């Protein structure tokens, strides 16, 4: 039985070897793939600080109401531009209309009482001057006049309060921008504090980055920075506008806000970015660790593995698995798998595979 198993394993090894030989022969028969190569760069981390962040609008608001009622109409849609003061949501205000009518009737009634009280007061003032009315009668008329005056002012304030509530029934945009989300539709019941829709300003964007406690002291207001938009592979300039001095509610990370110098319509709120904060360049010392950097675009991934194609013997592509570290802008730190001044492939005019014949441009 053991002899049969040994023969089976030997046969399997021969088949695998022959298949590998066939694949190798096929690779050598294919035309060489034109590639561009680069050498592993060696740098120090003292030149800049890198942090991840997201693009967000400088002005953003989630609109709600202070009254309860059915939503009559949503006047805007997600993605629609709105101007400052534009009506966006209408809430049923039938009860407010009734309160408004009552308030206006109250004002008319109070005004009529005030006018009569004023006429009586003026008449008694003249009578008192002619010594035809006593001081007690004048004091009583003065009190009546003041009460009528206060009643009219109170009626006006009630009307003003009712009119103010109409702003909670007719929700308007607080600034010009774009509707990013709607949370209600016609017929829904709106409750006090319930989100109705969200609006973001489009005139100015900023970046919100999270910086670790070891680097926050090197970042100052007004510092120029480089912002790399990962999805667009684009770099724009910015300037630090705010530096938080507390990490109590941000998980140990400090919030830094950056104003973008460029107003590009293709830059959208919510995009992920990588921010480079320049710090004072210090001469390398024995305590500073040199790091190996490669461009992120040259890396290949298979599941949780990260690798890069290098140049092997006889100009063949060799896939080398790496252990990577921090990201610095569009470059990634290589902890192991490559050595300094070693060449690697950054682009190819064809699909690379392990053992492929390549020709360097």
Quickly list its features.
361 residues; alpha+beta; conserved putative lor/sdh protein from methanococcus maripaludis s2 fold; Elongation Factor Tu (Ef-tu), domain 3; OB fold (Dihydrolipoamide Acetyltransferase, E2P); 6-stranded antiparallel β-sheet; 27% helix
Word description of this protein:
There is one protein chain. The radius of gyration is 38 Å and the shape is elongated. Strand 13 (about 225-230) and strand 14 (about 235-245) form a beta hairpin. It folds into 4 domains: about 25-45 and about 285-360, conserved putative lor/sdh protein from methanococcus maripaludis s2 fold (Beta Barrel), CATH 2.40.420; about 50-60 and about 205-280, Elongation Factor Tu (Ef-tu), domain 3; about 65-85 and about 175-200, RNA polymerase II/Efflux pump adaptor protein, barrel-sandwich hybrid domain (OB fold (Dihydrolipoamide Acetyltransferase, E2P)); about 95-170, Helix Hairpins (Orthogonal Bundle), CATH 1.10.287. The chain has helices at about 1-30, 95-130, 135-170; strands at about 35-40, 40-45, 50-55, 60-65, 70-75, 80, 85-90, 170, 175-180, 190, 195-200, 205-210, 225-230, 235-245, 255-260, 270-280, 290-295, 300, 305-310, 315-330, 330-335, 345-350, 360. The two termini are about 55 Å apart. Helix 2 (about 95-130) runs antiparallel to helix 3 (about 135-170). It is built from 3 helices and 23 strands. Helices cover about 25% and strands about 35% of the residues. With about 350 residues, it is of the alpha+beta class. Mean pLDDT is about 80; it is low at about 5-10, about 10-25 and about 280-290.
């Amino acid at each position: 039985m053991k002899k049969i198993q040994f023969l089976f394993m030997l046969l399997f090894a021969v088949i695998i070897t022959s298949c590998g030989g066939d694949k190798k022969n096929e690779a050598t028969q294919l035309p060489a793939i034109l590639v561009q190569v680069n050498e592993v760069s060696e740098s120090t981390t003292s030149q800049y600080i890198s942090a991840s962040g997201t693009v967000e609008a400088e002005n953003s608001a989630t609109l709600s109401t202070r009254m309860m009622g059915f939503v009559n109409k949503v006047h805007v849609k997600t993605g629609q531009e709105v101007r400052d003061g534009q009506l966006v949501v209408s809430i049923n205000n039938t009860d407010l209309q009734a309160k408004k009518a009552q308030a206006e009737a109250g004002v008319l009634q109070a005004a009529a009482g005030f006018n009569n009280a004023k006429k009586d007061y003026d008449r008694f003032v003249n009578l008192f001057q002619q010594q035809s009315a006593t001081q007690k009668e004048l004091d009583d008329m003065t009190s009546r006049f003041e009460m009528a005056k206060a009643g009219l002012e109170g009626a006006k304030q009630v009307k003003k309060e009712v009119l103010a509530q109409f702003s909670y029934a007719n929700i308007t945009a607080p600034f010009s921008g774009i509707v990013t989300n709607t949370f209600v539709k016609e017929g829904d019941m709106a409750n006090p504090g319930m989100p109705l829709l969200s609006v973001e300003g489009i005139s100015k964007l900023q970046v919100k980055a999270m910086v670790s406690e070891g680097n926050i002291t090197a970042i100052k207001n007004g510092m120029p920075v480089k912002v790399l938009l990962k999805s667009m592979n684009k770099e724009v300039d910015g300037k630090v506008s705010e530096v938080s001095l507390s990490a109590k509610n941000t998980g140990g990370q400090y919030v830094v806000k950056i104003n973008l110098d460029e107003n590009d319509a293709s830059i959208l709120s919510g995009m992920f970015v990588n921010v480079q904060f320049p710090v004072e360049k210090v001469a390398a010392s024995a305590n500073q660790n040199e790091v190996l950097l490669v461009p992120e675009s040259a890396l290949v991934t298979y599941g949780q593995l990260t690798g890069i194609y290098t140049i092997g013997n006889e100009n063949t592509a060799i896939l080398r698995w790496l252990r990577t570290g921090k990201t610095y802008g569009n470059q990634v730190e290589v902890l192991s798998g490559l050595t300094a001044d070693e060449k690697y492939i950054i682009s190819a005019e064809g699909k690379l595979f392990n053992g492929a014949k390549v020709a360097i441009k």
